[in-house]
Design brief:
The structure is a homotetramer of 338-residue chains.
Chain A: E1 16-26, H1 29-39, E2 43-47, E3 51-55, E4 65-69, E5 74-82, H2 85-97, E6 102-105, E7 114-118, E8 124-128, E9 149-159, H3 162-172, E10 176-182, E11 191-197, E12 205-209, E13 214-222, H4 225-237, E14 244-250, E15 257-262, E16 268-273, E17 286-289, H5 293-296, H6 305-309, E18 312-313
Parallel strand pairs in A: 1-4, 5-8, 9-12, 10-17, 13-16
Antiparallel strand pairs in A: 1-5, 2-3, 3-4, 6-7, 7-8, 9-13, 10-11, 11-12, 13-18, 14-15, 15-16
Chain lengths: 338, 338, 338, 338
């Protein structure tokens, strides 16, 4: 249809497989551990002096969430797994060709060498192939605790120019679009948000119009709405009801049954279920109008201002400082959308 | 404890058993039927010209909800079942002794003679013993539709003087208190809400400080939170998301997992689960401080203004007009509480 | 209806309120603790040298399950709560009048003096009024573990003469019948099983035709079928699948969604949900024909032979030995039914 | 590891995407419709004289299940979707090169031309690219009925030589192995069952050692165990408990929470949930020993003999007759495994 934006996926010579992990910066590692492990039930795989490596019950990977002690909260990097060691070299070449910063991270616990890059939107991204395997706890039901978090599902990021960032992820990295938000004025402009995936779920990364580069949240998949409700009950029982930022509720987008929680450092996670499988490469993306109230909240609940306005700063890949942010290109309406 | 208000139950010579049904006034019977039967899955037992008699899947009674065509929305009456035909005569005597209006309602579909009274708070109450039995659908799972509503659970009413109304229901009618809200200033005053029961659940009737007599909502019990969530999905799918007034969420009070819906005439129902059993007559009531935020919303979500301010007018028992309302006696804080 | 057996409840001068606790004899207290507390999530209230006092998340009572170290597995006693201290004296008189053994148990942890009796069927029963209160964990969701066991619900016992035992519980103790099994040949005979209640659920005690007096199982209530399924997963993860004796499944009787587990000493518990409320004293009991296959297993699964044949011996109230058993009076068909 | 069988996937020049639909032969179309549509809640997309086209609530495809009127029950064909029209030509060449029967099916409702082949094991397989799209009902919760069946997930087939059939699907068609069953005696022999997938779930097709070619069952995905339990309740309420053949229960294999139902013609379907995502091509298959009791039934329930012995005959692709079957090559133990 001529009115639709071009959302086609490219065919790069390497294969990005899926979202692999995210590194959250926390100011108090013990306090963060109490939140993620003791209360929500994330599994601790390993810790070294400054880092805690966590995973969900469905994950074979050594870690899906890394907590790193730091002077200020934020996101160190978000990581994708690729299909081979050689893919890392191809990716290094791609980013260098475009004049983007890269470096190799070696010696991280639980994985081989990893390529760190700053993508065109400024997001600190890691690509990794070799990941150590931990005990698969899927059927160790006697180990299940808390909200029964199963696995990392996706990243949600704010970027100043969704159309440009979407183009990069689709055309250069081969991501496909599952759903998107447009203001409908014009096919090639007005892209307020895109949900992009490599694995066959609704997304590995979502890009939303906003002050960026920033990470809005990391989404973790749970098996059922009951796990989301249990998370709320756990938070409230621990006198953390004020850290339940939004939900539980259903997004029209992705059909996601969700709750958003803020950790003790204000990093935001989503517990998430009821999305769907996309096994067809010719999946026709779901289009949402910016002013469709069902998009963000199928049941009609408004999101709080903090959910729209606040997001985590991201480190530059040389570390030690946060990336500068820019205002979004689409400004005449609320700047964050979903 | 000396600081606690007197919440003891009296021992009247008759036995009120439980909440039996409520009569909602609706301006368009077909539209109301589409909402309750087609969408939410209430079972239609019978209809006559102006009334629709509905029940839930666990109810053996002919009806737990009556919809009556009327010029304006509101509540015709709320009904309790008593343990014998003779109890009706004893109740008539009680109300007459106190100079309260009574009359006999005969020939209503699905039940024997019923005593209608106007209670001291002005609420139109029916007492009935003989109720026709309908097919019990508990194990007719092939008939289950919509939100799988199981049975009427309770009434929630706003009254100007909770302490006085509570005293009536406890001392004269034998209701016991499960939970209550107090402003803590003084033991005998400051009663903002009481949850009173005859059957062994948290309540058959709740009385809340507010402009009254009015009915805030009728609560229907469902088996699990999934039924509550399904109700939200059903409402939204039917483009009625704006009729999901509050929730889903958990009340601290009663541990209720709830959602509040407004029907096409603005009558309010609650779908409700996760409360508990009270089999002991010496149950020590749960005390909630008026300013405890967990009381109303365990997870911290504020209720909308409409939930606090709006309630249904009630008919006088001679019919044809709504009872006059008075402002609440406790006024220095938000007038409706939970 | 003239064909129906007489199942009326008497009106004794005392008030039995509900099933209160059961005492299981276990040969290895640590092993039993690992099963009930560590795996299934029962809450430990207190332990003394030979006893472990456990409760569920909805229980305010000090204990709903007592594990007592003993040379052989079995049941020490099953206990009901009464409405007053004086009721205990009235009960003592009743049992003595009928020439039945009684004694006072004093100094048990978490409760006042208790009357122990041997009922006409030979079951060791305790009546108690004063029970210490423990922290109510209903909303301490951060404490929930295992199968989220909420509360003791009922006892299920095998007795040689159901009609006689039923008469005792109904006429002398005031229990009402919710459901029953008959072979249909005759109204006054052929009673194979009765479900009797004092609290407003389907039962506090069920009596089934069989070699007795023996306790078939103690039933604990959970909030939803998911808790029952989780119990199965927990058992299997702990390599105790062979201790899942029957289910999960649904009984036609009581609409119970159930699983039966055998503890390390072979004592049997049921995790149980989806039953219904009985608030009316004139509830017409549900009649099940002995040969109706839906009665025991609504979904058609046969129960294993062990479930029919095996039950726990019960101690005599003077302790130290097990009550002698007699064969059932109804013998021409399978002797245990449900 | 040297002891493991070779289970690598090949890299054919075409792309098989996923299981697309199955055609069941039924002797009474109205009776089958009552079962699938009225009771279980499958959605009817279209019917012509002899065929009924059904789909689940998550499916955009015109059909995931086709019921075709026929003189005897069985399976007409099972279909996979490919990534392009050209892939069909490449597949035709492959099968012809191996001397296997092929033909083009044109004019089937809801899809373009389709390639029908008889695979080396004798299974009648269709490949199709163009499939008409139907209304996506994922968020039409007001349309949900019955067991809330979401989508076709997989086929399970009995073949005489699992190793050979597995090799074909892996090496020639590019399927990857998620889990497998071996008798452990030797790495290259003793393959009793393989779970093979193209989409990122545990399987699109499972191949089990047995009399074949036959189709054991078609698996349909539901969102949660509650949907599986509801299916059991629906079957029992409709007096079809004897058609609940196995379960509900959990397979160790795939972590599947399942129930197996027989339709009025004895075709078998599985309702299935709680499996996991496989986004990595280097997923190391889960190995199950043939004699591990957890493999088939994690909770320890034995499967009935019918589940092991009975399966549906399959038509040859020229129609009108059923493919001849051969006994399995592995015979010293129970011939069907899971």
């Amino acid at each position: 249809m001529s009115r639709e934006p071009d959302l086609a996926a490219g065919h790069p010579p390497f294969t990005v497989l899926r979202a692999a992990h995210i590194e959250f910066l926390v100011t108090d590692l013990e306090r963060a551990r109490a939140f993620y492990v003791d209360l929500l039930g994330f599994v601790e795989t390993e810790r070294d002096g400054d880092r805690l490596y966590l995973r969900g019950y469905e994950e074979r990977d050594h870690h899906g969430l890394v907590l790193r002690r730091a002077p200020a909260a934020g996101v160190g990097h978000l990581a994708f797994r690729v299909a081979s060691e050689h893919d890392l070299d191809l990716l290094e070449r791609l980013y260098r060709t475009h004049g983007l910063p890269t470096r190799w991270a070696r010696g991280e616990a639980g994985q081989g060498r990893a390529l760190r890059v700053q993508d065109p939107a400024g997001l600190p991204v890691e690509f990794v192939y070799e990941i150590a395997q931990a005990e698969w706890l899927l059927q160790r039901f006697d180990r299940y605790r808390g909200a029964f978090v199963m696995r990392l599902d996706h990243f949600n990021c704010q970027v100043p120019d969704v159309a440009a960032a979407s183009r990069w992820y689709r055309q250069e990295l081969g991501f496909a679009c599952s759903e998107y938000i447009t203001d409908g004025a014009d096919a090639s402009s007005g892209l307020w948000g895109v949900w992009l995936h490599r694995k066959q779920t609704v997304h590995d990364i979502a890009l939303m119009n906003g002050v960026g580069p920033r990470v809005h949240h990391a989404g973790f998949w749970v098996q059922d709405p009951a796990s989301v409700l249990r998370a709320c009950d756990l938070m409230a029982a621990a006198h953390l009801a004020d850290r339940i930022e939004r939900g539980p509720g259903r997004h029209g987008l992705a059909n996601a049954f969700f709750v958003y929680l803020r950790d003790p450092d204000n990093n935001r996670i989503e517990l998430y279920t009821n999305d769907y499988l996309i096994a067809d490469p010719d999946w026709r993306p779901v289009r949402w109008a910016l002013d469709d109230p069902r998009r963000g909240t199928f049941w009609g609940h408004p999101a709080p201002a903090s959910w729209y306005g606040e997001a985590s700063p991201v480190e530059t890949i040389d570390g030690g400082q946060f990336a500068e942010t820019r205002p979004p290109v689409l400004r005449d309406r609320p700047s964050v959308t979903r």
